[in-house]
Design brief:
This protein has 339 residues and is of the alpha/beta class. The chain has a single domain, classed as Rossmann fold, CATH 3.40.50.720. It is built from 10 helices and 11 strands. The strands form 3 sheets. A 7-stranded parallel beta sheet has the order 3-2-1-4-5-8-11, sandwiched between helices. Strands 6-7 form a two-stranded antiparallel ribbon. It has a two-stranded parallel sheet with strand order 9-10. α1 links the parallel β1 (2-6) and β2 (25-29). α2 packs parallel to α3 (135-149), α6 (251-262) packs across α10 (322-338) and α7 crosses α8 (292-299). InterPro entries: Epimerase_deHydtase (IPR001509), Lipid_A_modif_metabolic_enz (IPR050177), NAD(P)-bd_dom_sf (IPR036291). Residues 3-241 form the NAD-dependent epimerase/dehydratase domain. This is NAD-dependent epimerase/dehydratase family protein.
Length: 339
């Protein structure tokens, strides 16, 4: 297949190139266009504007994977409009290009944060009514909605929206669209929240919230690449799919894995839960770093179901176990810190 990947020089894009390059012809679309091993050519965003770069001058793509976007800013320093300009605006631009092109498959990388900032109930499934909080999740759901507005939608799917890819006049007949919502993605080269926690643990700072046994889903980038290739090469029904590893991990288990990778003994303090909640409440009143909202984020459950995507791909389990994927990620941190 000829595959166009936006954001190809990012963390997920770089991993996807390694996963796909041996069996497919890859092209990139990014804000920077240096040569990349395994990539035939990287275009700029201006190149897909048909007014300046006629479509017939571009290769004929069989599929488009849209990764480009603005990641969640954990420090909350980014202006809200930036998220909408990038996450929503670029999606509109590339999806319009897809509709005009001969490409048959389109994969949008959205996020579980487009569905819910916090999980109500035991597990987050595709049938949830989206209630994003903040510009990151709101810009992602706006991108999803733009796609839905341009395709006939069927709500008879047991997991929520199913995108038919066909208008009454058959204009988009044969096209398939996938909205993929991964939870926290990790792997070598990742610089997200896991790296921040790793740096805390590395310094030997005790974790005081051991009394909270939360459960969280993660997404190994290896599992993610496996799923993307499955969507591109198999006859999978269009629709929305949540993505995560099979197993869930608590923060305590995560810290234990980090210490195992570093050859250290974990320092997990089980401070009284009620006392920590009272301290967080005082922190809210006094504007301290540990407040009620931050405590909730650090200790809440966020379990994501991957049953729909596994069923669609005809598999019983993901190829990489959650703990193995986490260990691979953490070992990459230890390697980077010694270089």
């Amino acid at each position: 297949m000829n595959i166009l990947i936006t954001g190809i020089h990012g963390f997920v894009g770089s991993n996807l190139v390694v996963s796909l390059k041996d069996h497919h012809v890859l092209y990139g679309l990014d804000i920077i266009t240096p040569k990349k091993e395994g990539v035939m050519k990287t275009f700029s965003w201006k190149d897909i504007e048909t007014t300046t770069f006629p479509m017939q001058q571009l290769p004929q793509f069989d599929a488009i994977v849209h990764l480009a976007g603005k990641a969640h800013d954990t420090k909350n320093q980014s202006a809200a409009q930036v998220y909408f300009d990038i996450n929503t605006g670029l999606t509109q631009k590339i999806f319009d290009f897809f509709l005009k092109s001969k490409a048959k498959k389109f994969v949008l990388f959205s996020s579980v944060k487009a569905a819910a900032d916090s999980v109500v109930g035991n597990v987050l499934r595709e049938d949830v009514i989206p209630t994003p909080v903040g510009p990151y999740g709101e810009s992602k759901i706006a991108a999803e909605n733009y796609i839905k507005e341009h395709f006939i939608l069927s709500t008879t799917c047991p997991y929520g929206y199913s995108i038919s890819g066909e208008e009454e006049n058959g204009k988009y007949s044969g096209k398939q669209v996938y909205i993929l919502r991964p939870c926290m993605i990790h792997g070598p080269g990742n610089k997200g929240n896991l790296n921040l926690l790793y740096n805390v643990v590395k310094k030997g700072i005790p974790w005081p919230l051991g009394d909270f046994e939360n459960k969280r889903s993660f997404t190994s980038v290896d599992n993610l690449c496996y799923v993307v290739e499955g969507l591109l090469t198999k006859d999978v029904a269009s629709g929305i799919y949540h993505m995560g590893d099979d197993e869930v991990l608590s923060t305590n288990e995560l810290i234990a894995l980090m210490c195992k990778a570093m050859g250290k003994k974990p320092h997990i303090w089980k401070m009284n839960r009620k006392m920590m909640e009272v301290c967080a409440g005082l922190g809210t009143l006094l504007h301290l770093p540990l407040n009620t909202e931050r405590l909730r984020k650090l200790t809440e459950n966020y379990v994501v179901s991957n049953e729909k995507i596994k069923s669609a791909l005809g598999i019983n389990r993901m190829p990489v176990r959650a703990a193995d994927g986490i260990m691979k990620t953490i070992r990459s941190f230890t390697t980077e810190s010694t270089e």
